């Protein structure tokens, strides 16, 4: 696939048409590419567990996160409703000395490790499967493809493509590095894995490791390594169920077109129906994979069934 950096509108339109899955699973579909992740694929993923070692792939949800307020995205605010102090003072009103603690968290659903739901991005007023965006997502939420529909399905064979180690210097890709299909396939070959129908693919760039070492800086919304727009054909043709990266925006930033914002999202979500994860912590898993040479594993990453949500926090668990 060629890319004309001066023609984002035309390039997006042509790619969207070539990669469209509209109608593939019927006009009422709410799962998109998760339809590729069937019972057989889950059995295949479960059979990969041999050592029983597990890895959380989530960043922590706290005030020390990367968010800086862009479009009202803030870091989580955690507040206690009941504390041990209240219990010790006997002011909770419970009988026979019992006490307890309760808390609340306030946060944007996409402020840390998360999934982008199918109602997150539109193309010229069209949502996933060709639906009118104004009839899908309203002030009451995503009335059609709310992420609650996906809660039971995101579990199966996970594959790590550690492009940072395979292609980068010192295990990391520089900001602005565009990961092409050739990089993805070469990394898979180097790791001895295949990527195909129903897989959940994790792409490590190393940017999160750099941000932790040097400070958040512009991690949330700034320049970053990521997938090239030219990978749209691979994302469609490989029939993967989902993909996640360790970066804020999944695709390369700055984007490859002049005067463009997240063009790969504009194809991948509303046209391919692809589930996209961002800000995943792949460091511990990647280190283990580098040691034992095994880059496939059981992965479960269910979104919270928040009715009408267009994204969800997630604590993905990889088990080898």
TrEMBL record:
<dbReference type="InterPro" id="IPR037175">
    <property type="entry name" value="KFase_sf"/>
</dbReference>
<dbReference type="GO" id="GO:0019441">
    <property type="term" value="P:L-tryptophan catabolic process to kynurenine"/>
</dbReference>
<dbReference type="InterPro" id="IPR007325">
    <property type="entry name" value="KFase/CYL"/>
</dbReference>
<dbReference type="Pfam" id="PF04199">
    <property type="entry name" value="Cyclase"/>
</dbReference>
<dbReference type="GO" id="GO:0004061">
    <property type="term" value="F:arylformamidase activity"/>
</dbReference>
<protein>
    <submittedName>
        <fullName>Cyclase family protein</fullName>
    </submittedName>
</protein>
């Amino acid at each position: 696939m060629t890319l004309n950096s001066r023609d984002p509108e035309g390039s997006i339109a042509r790619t969207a048409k070539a990669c469209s899955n509209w109608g593939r699973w019927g006009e009422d579909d709410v799962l998109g590419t998760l339809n590729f992740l069937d019972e057989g694929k889950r059995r295949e993923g479960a059979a990969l567990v041999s050592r029983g070692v597990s890895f959380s792939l989530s960043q922590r949800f706290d005030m020390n996160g990367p968010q800086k307020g862009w479009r009202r995205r803030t870091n989580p605010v955690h507040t206690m409703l009941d504390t041990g102090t209240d219990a010790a003072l006997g002011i909770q009103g419970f009988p026979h000395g019992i006490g307890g603690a309760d808390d609340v968290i306030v946060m944007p659903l996409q402020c840390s490790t998360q999934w982008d739901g199918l109602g997150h991005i539109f193309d010229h007023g069209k949502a996933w499967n060709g639906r009118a965006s104004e009839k899908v997502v309203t002030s009451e939420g995503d009335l059609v493809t709310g992420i609650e529909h996906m809660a039971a399905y995101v579990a199966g064979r996970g594959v790590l493509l550690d492009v940072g180690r395979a292609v980068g210097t010192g295990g990391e890709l520089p900001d602005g590095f565009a990961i092409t299909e050739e990089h993805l396939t070469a990394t898979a070959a180097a790791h001895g894995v295949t990527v195909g129908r129903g897989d959940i693919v994790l792409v490590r760039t190393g940017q999160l490791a750099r941000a932790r070492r040097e400070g958040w800086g512009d991690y949330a919304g700034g320049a970053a390594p990521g997938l090239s727009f030219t990978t749209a054909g691979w994302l469609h043709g490989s029939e993967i169920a989902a993909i996640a990266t360790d970066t804020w925006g999944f695709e390369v930033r700055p984007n490859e077109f002049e005067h463009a914002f997240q063009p790969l999202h504009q194809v991948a979500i509303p046209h391919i129906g692809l589930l996209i994860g961002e800000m995943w912590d792949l460091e511990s898993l990647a280190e283990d994979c580098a040691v034992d040479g095994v880059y496939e594993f059981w992965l479960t990453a269910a979104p919270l069934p928040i009715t009408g949500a267009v994204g969800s926090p997630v604590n993905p668990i990889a088990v080898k």
